[in-house]
Amino acid sequence: MTPPPPISVAESMRSVVKPGDSQINRDLLGVMEGVSLGWGALLGVALLFVGAAGVTWVYQVYIGLGIAGYTHPIFWGVYIVTFVFWVGIAHAGTLISAILYLFRAKWRNSINRGAEAMTVFAVLTAAQFLGIHVGRMWKSYFILPYPNQRGLWVNFRSPLEWDTFAISTYATISIVFFFIGLIPDLAIARDRAKGLRKLIYTALALGWQGTSRQWKAHSRSVLHLSGLATPLVLSVHSVVSWDFAMSIVPGWHATIFAPYFVAGAIFSGFAMVLTVMIPFRRIYGLEAYITDYHFENMTRFLLLTSWIVGYAYGIEYFVAWYSGAEPEQTAFWLRLTGPYWVSTWIMITCNVVFPQLFWFKKLRTHIPTIFVVSTFVNIGMWFERYVIIIGSLSREYDPAVWNVYTPAWPELIIFAGSFAFFAQFIILFIKGAPFIAISEVKELAIHARAHAKGAH
Amino acid sequence: MPEIARRDFLKLVGVSAGGAAAAGCAEKVEQLIPYVVQPEEVTPGKPVFYASSCTECSVGCGILVKTREGRPIKLEGNPEHPVNKGKLCSKAQASIGRTYSPDRFKGPLRRDAGGALLPITWDEAIAQIAEAVKKSPAGVHVLGGDPGDTANTVIDQVVAALGAQRTTYIPFSGEALREAARLVFGVASEPVFDLSGADLVLDFGAELLESGPSPVEHQRQWAEARDIDAHALDGGARLVYVGSRLSLTASSSDQWLAARPGSEGVLALALAHAAVKAAGAASPHAALLSGALAKFDADTAAAQTDIAADVIRSLGAALARANSALALPPGVGVTSRRAVGANAAVLVLNQVLGAIGRSVTVSAEIPGARARAKYADVLALTKRMQSGGVSVLLVHNGNPAYSLPKATGFSEALAKVGLVVSFATAADETSALAQLVLPDHAPLESWGDLRPRSGVRGAIQPSFKPLYDTQSLADSLLAIARKVGGASAAALPAGDFHSIVNAAWADTDARAALQRGGVFAAAVPAANALFDASKLDVALPELSGSGEFTLLAFPHITLGDGRGAALGLLQEVPDAVTHVLWESWAEISVATAAKLGAETGDILTVTTGAGDLEVAAYVRGGIRDDVIAIPTGQGHTVGWYASKEEVGMPGMARGVNVAALLSGQTDEAGGQAWLTEKAAVSNTGRHRRLPMLQFSDNKRGRQLGEAVTLAALNGHDEHAAHHGAHEMRVEYDPAADAADEQYERTFQARGQKNVKASDYRWGLTVDLDKCTGCSACITACYVENNIPVVGETEIRNVRPMTWLRIDRWIGDGETDFMNETGRIQTAPSREKLGEVDVRNAPIMCQQCGAAPCEPVCPVIATYHNEEGLNGMIYNRCIGTRYCANNCPYKVRRYNYFDNQITKWPSPMELGLNPDVTVRGQGVMEKCTFCVQRIQFARQDAKNLGGHNAVIADGAIQTACQQTCPSNAISFGNLRDDASAVSLKADSKRGYHALHVLNTRPAVTYLSKVVRGPAV
Question: Fewest CB within 10 A of the end CB: N or C in chain A?
Answer without folding.
Answer: N
